[in-house]
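Hi, here's the filled form for the chain we discussed.

Project: internal
Contact: R.S.
Residues: 181
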Amino acid sequence: MAQAQTTNATTEAHGGAHDVGFPPFASETFGGQLLWLAITFVVLYTLLSRLVLPRLSGIIENRRAMIASDLDNAAAMKSRAEEAGTAYEKSLAEAKGRAQALAQETRAKLSAESDAKRKALEADLNQRLAEAEATISGKKAEAMSHVDAIARDTASAIIERLTGKAPAPQKVEAALNQIKA
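And the returned structure, exactly as it came back:
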């Protein structure tokens, strides 16, 4: 019951007991609504076209210019990086060439020194070999000069042992001379 009283009080406060419905659909207010719609549209259109759109287009143009500038800077940096890479590759190739030339020069120098040392050693060895051969020839000649005396002494000792008497040195010498001939 309290609810019904509240509803009646609300209805009386709003102007009576008639039920209007949704106000924008009320046909008596269409003319005023259309007029205010047109005024609001023109004011908003004017504000947007005169104030907001120029600012937005300025912002968009600034962004476009900034992006173009950044792209140009990036392209310039890329070309500088490529140039630096090319210069690096060139200097690296030059350094490798110098290193190879230095290594070849060092190899040639060491090879020449090695050949010189080897030749000096070979000359020293050849000299020592010649000296050794001369010494051997001398020793051989000396030994060969004693062979006759050794043969004489050996033959005399064998004959003396077999016969019990020492043979005459002239006979032993004559026998040895026959064997040589």
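Let me know if anything looks off before we file it.
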